[in-house]
Amino acid sequence: MWALIAIFTASGQICTAGSRLLLDNRVYEEFMDKLLERTRGLRVGPGLENPDLGPVVSKAQMERVLNYIEVGKGEGAALSIGGSRLTDGVLESGYFIAPTIFSGVKSGMRISQEEIFGPVLSVLTFDDVDEALQIANGTQYGLAAGVWTSNLRTAHYMAKNLEAGNVYVNRYFGAGLEAPAGSYKRSGIGPIGGTETLRHYTRLKNVALNLD
User: Fold this and answer.
1) Residue 179 belongs to a domain
2) Which of 15, 27, 84, 194 could form an S-S bond across to 180 if both were Cys, CB 3.0 to 4.6 Å?
3) Is residue 211 part of a domain?
4) How deeply is 4 buried, as exposed, middle or buried, from its count of CB atoms within 10 A (0-12, 13-18, 19+)?
5) Looking at the domain assignment, is residue 51 inside a domain?
Protein backbone atom coordinates (compact mmCIF):
# COMPACT_ATOMS: atom_id res chain seq x y z
CA MET A 1 0.00 0.00 0.00
CA TRP A 2 1.55 3.27 -1.18
CA ALA A 3 0.25 5.20 1.85
CA LEU A 4 2.47 3.08 4.11
CA ILE A 5 5.48 3.38 1.81
CA ALA A 6 5.04 7.16 1.71
CA ILE A 7 5.24 7.65 5.48
CA PHE A 8 7.08 4.67 6.92
CA THR A 9 10.01 4.43 4.48
CA ALA A 10 13.11 5.31 6.55
CA SER A 11 10.75 5.66 9.52
CA GLY A 12 9.39 8.88 8.07
CA GLN A 13 12.79 10.57 8.08
CA ILE A 14 12.62 11.74 4.47
CA CYS A 15 11.95 15.31 3.38
CA THR A 16 9.24 14.14 0.97
CA ALA A 17 7.58 11.73 3.42
CA GLY A 18 3.81 11.55 3.01
CA SER A 19 2.95 12.52 6.58
CA ARG A 20 -0.64 13.56 5.80
CA LEU A 21 -3.15 11.22 4.19
CA LEU A 22 -6.31 12.78 2.78
CA LEU A 23 -9.13 10.25 2.31
CA ASP A 24 -12.42 10.67 0.49
CA ASN A 25 -15.21 10.18 3.03
CA ARG A 26 -16.81 7.64 0.70
CA VAL A 27 -13.92 5.20 1.10
CA TYR A 28 -12.70 6.23 4.55
CA GLU A 29 -13.96 3.30 6.64
CA GLU A 30 -12.87 0.57 4.23
CA PHE A 31 -9.49 2.17 3.59
CA MET A 32 -8.74 2.72 7.26
CA ASP A 33 -9.52 -0.92 8.08
CA LYS A 34 -7.02 -2.07 5.47
CA LEU A 35 -4.47 0.58 6.46
CA LEU A 36 -4.50 -0.43 10.12
CA GLU A 37 -4.42 -4.13 9.27
CA ARG A 38 -1.29 -3.71 7.16
CA THR A 39 0.32 -1.42 9.70
CA ARG A 40 -0.08 -4.11 12.38
CA GLY A 41 1.95 -6.43 10.16
CA LEU A 42 4.94 -4.10 9.84
CA ARG A 43 8.14 -5.25 11.49
CA VAL A 44 10.32 -2.80 13.41
CA GLY A 45 13.96 -3.67 14.06
CA PRO A 46 17.67 -2.96 13.51
CA GLY A 47 18.67 -2.20 9.95
CA LEU A 48 20.78 -5.34 9.59
CA GLU A 49 17.63 -7.41 10.03
CA ASN A 50 16.04 -5.74 6.98
CA PRO A 51 12.89 -4.63 8.85
CA ASP A 52 10.03 -2.55 7.50
CA LEU A 53 11.00 0.26 9.88
CA GLY A 54 14.26 1.01 11.63
CA PRO A 55 15.03 3.49 14.42
CA VAL A 56 14.91 7.25 14.31
CA VAL A 57 18.28 8.91 14.07
CA SER A 58 18.89 9.99 17.68
CA LYS A 59 17.52 10.14 21.20
CA ALA A 60 16.68 13.80 20.72
CA GLN A 61 14.67 13.04 17.59
CA MET A 62 12.89 10.16 19.30
CA GLU A 63 11.85 12.47 22.14
CA ARG A 64 10.74 15.08 19.62
CA VAL A 65 8.54 12.57 17.76
CA LEU A 66 7.07 11.21 20.99
CA ASN A 67 6.30 14.77 22.07
CA TYR A 68 4.42 15.36 18.82
CA ILE A 69 2.39 12.22 19.51
CA GLU A 70 1.38 13.67 22.87
CA VAL A 71 0.57 16.95 21.14
CA GLY A 72 -1.70 15.11 18.70
CA LYS A 73 -3.57 13.40 21.50
CA GLY A 74 -3.89 16.68 23.34
CA GLU A 75 -5.31 18.36 20.24
CA GLY A 76 -8.09 15.78 20.08
CA ALA A 77 -6.86 13.54 17.27
CA ALA A 78 -7.64 9.83 17.72
CA LEU A 79 -4.60 7.58 18.13
CA SER A 80 -5.58 4.63 15.93
CA ILE A 81 -2.36 2.63 16.29
CA GLY A 82 1.15 2.95 17.71
CA GLY A 83 2.15 6.01 19.63
CA SER A 84 4.94 4.67 21.83
CA ARG A 85 8.60 3.77 22.01
CA LEU A 86 9.41 0.10 21.42
CA THR A 87 11.83 -1.50 23.88
CA ASP A 88 11.33 -5.26 23.58
CA GLY A 89 14.47 -7.37 23.16
CA VAL A 90 17.08 -5.84 20.87
CA LEU A 91 14.96 -2.70 20.53
CA GLU A 92 15.73 -1.67 24.10
CA SER A 93 19.06 -0.10 23.23
CA GLY A 94 17.77 1.83 20.20
CA TYR A 95 15.43 4.67 19.36
CA PHE A 96 12.52 2.73 17.91
CA ILE A 97 9.01 4.14 17.63
CA ALA A 98 5.97 2.07 16.71
CA PRO A 99 4.40 3.03 13.37
CA THR A 100 1.77 5.53 14.42
CA ILE A 101 -1.47 6.64 12.78
CA PHE A 102 -3.79 9.42 13.92
CA SER A 103 -7.35 9.65 12.60
CA GLY A 104 -9.85 12.46 13.03
CA VAL A 105 -7.10 14.99 12.33
CA LYS A 106 -8.11 18.55 11.47
CA SER A 107 -6.09 20.70 9.11
CA GLY A 108 -5.20 23.29 11.76
CA MET A 109 -3.70 20.80 14.21
CA ARG A 110 0.04 20.95 14.78
CA ILE A 111 0.51 17.31 13.75
CA SER A 112 -0.97 18.29 10.40
CA GLN A 113 0.87 21.58 10.00
CA GLU A 114 4.37 20.86 11.30
CA GLU A 115 7.14 18.51 10.17
CA ILE A 116 7.40 15.61 12.61
CA PHE A 117 10.07 13.72 10.65
CA GLY A 118 9.16 10.36 12.16
CA PRO A 119 6.81 7.38 11.62
CA VAL A 120 3.63 9.33 12.33
CA LEU A 121 0.76 9.58 9.84
CA SER A 122 -2.11 12.07 10.14
CA VAL A 123 -5.34 11.07 8.40
CA LEU A 124 -7.76 13.78 7.26
CA THR A 125 -10.95 13.50 5.23
CA PHE A 126 -12.62 15.43 2.41
CA ASP A 127 -15.87 15.41 0.43
CA ASP A 128 -14.70 16.61 -3.01
CA VAL A 129 -11.52 17.39 -4.92
CA ASP A 130 -11.67 21.11 -4.23
CA GLU A 131 -11.84 20.52 -0.49
CA ALA A 132 -8.94 18.07 -0.82
CA LEU A 133 -6.95 20.71 -2.72
CA GLN A 134 -7.69 23.33 -0.08
CA ILE A 135 -6.51 21.04 2.72
CA ALA A 136 -3.43 19.92 0.79
CA ASN A 137 -2.37 23.49 0.07
CA GLY A 138 -3.25 24.74 3.54
CA THR A 139 0.23 24.36 4.96
CA GLN A 140 3.48 26.32 4.92
CA TYR A 141 5.31 23.47 3.18
CA GLY A 142 5.18 22.44 -0.46
CA LEU A 143 7.77 19.84 -1.34
CA ALA A 144 5.77 16.77 -2.36
CA ALA A 145 2.21 15.55 -2.84
CA GLY A 146 0.59 12.35 -4.05
CA VAL A 147 -2.70 11.89 -5.92
CA TRP A 148 -4.64 8.66 -6.36
CA THR A 149 -7.36 8.68 -8.99
CA SER A 150 -8.65 6.70 -11.96
CA ASN A 151 -9.79 9.94 -13.61
CA LEU A 152 -7.12 11.48 -15.83
CA ARG A 153 -8.86 14.87 -15.79
CA THR A 154 -8.75 14.88 -11.98
CA ALA A 155 -5.08 13.89 -12.05
CA HIS A 156 -4.20 16.84 -14.29
CA TYR A 157 -6.37 19.24 -12.29
CA MET A 158 -4.75 18.28 -9.01
CA ALA A 159 -1.23 18.23 -10.42
CA LYS A 160 -1.70 21.73 -11.84
CA ASN A 161 -3.13 23.24 -8.68
CA LEU A 162 -1.19 21.50 -5.92
CA GLU A 163 1.40 23.85 -4.42
CA ALA A 164 4.17 21.26 -4.40
CA GLY A 165 7.40 20.85 -6.30
CA ASN A 166 6.93 17.09 -6.66
CA VAL A 167 3.55 15.57 -7.55
CA TYR A 168 3.24 11.80 -7.73
CA VAL A 169 0.16 10.29 -9.38
CA ASN A 170 -0.91 6.76 -8.41
CA ARG A 171 2.49 6.15 -6.81
CA TYR A 172 4.73 7.82 -4.27
CA PHE A 173 8.33 9.02 -4.60
CA GLY A 174 9.62 10.12 -7.97
CA ALA A 175 11.52 8.82 -10.96
CA GLY A 176 15.00 9.61 -9.64
CA LEU A 177 17.34 12.36 -8.51
CA GLU A 178 18.11 13.29 -12.11
CA ALA A 179 14.54 14.53 -12.59
CA PRO A 180 14.33 18.26 -11.78
CA ALA A 181 11.83 19.37 -9.15
CA GLY A 182 10.92 22.62 -7.49
CA SER A 183 10.30 23.63 -3.90
CA TYR A 184 7.32 25.68 -2.84
CA LYS A 185 6.79 27.94 0.17
CA ARG A 186 9.08 26.92 3.09
CA SER A 187 10.22 23.68 1.48
CA GLY A 188 13.67 24.57 0.27
CA ILE A 189 15.18 27.58 -1.50
CA GLY A 190 15.34 26.46 -5.10
CA PRO A 191 15.14 23.63 -7.63
CA ILE A 192 16.91 20.31 -7.32
CA GLY A 193 17.97 17.84 -9.98
CA GLY A 194 18.87 18.22 -13.65
CA THR A 195 20.05 21.40 -15.33
CA GLU A 196 17.58 23.47 -13.29
CA THR A 197 19.86 23.05 -10.28
CA LEU A 198 22.85 24.34 -12.24
CA ARG A 199 20.88 27.38 -13.37
CA HIS A 200 20.04 28.10 -9.76
CA TYR A 201 23.77 28.71 -9.11
CA THR A 202 24.27 31.04 -12.08
CA ARG A 203 23.37 34.64 -12.82
CA LEU A 204 22.37 35.96 -16.21
CA LYS A 205 24.38 38.85 -17.58
CA ASN A 206 24.03 40.75 -20.86
CA VAL A 207 27.19 42.47 -22.16
CA ALA A 208 26.94 44.99 -25.04
CA LEU A 209 30.42 45.71 -26.45
CA ASN A 210 31.30 48.40 -28.99
CA LEU A 211 34.75 48.01 -30.58
CA ASP A 212 34.58 51.08 -32.92
Assistant:
1) yes
2) 194
3) no
4) buried
5) yes
User: pTM score, two decimals?
Assistant: 0.87
CATH number, domain containing residue 44: 3.40.309.10
Q: Are 78 and 104 in contact (CB under 8 A)?
A: yes
CA dihedral angle for residue 155, residue 113, residue 200, residue 147, rounded to 10 degrees: -10
Please give the pLDDT value at position 209.
84
Distance (Å, rounded) from C-alpha 11 to C-alpha 18?
Answer: 11
pLDDT tens digit string along 109-118? 999 999 999 9
Domain that holds residue 96: 2-200
Q: Name, in order, each residue with C-beta under 8 angstroms of 162's C-beta and a sequence gap of 6 or more.
A: 133, 136, 137, 145, 147
Higher-confidence residue of 189 and 68: namely 68
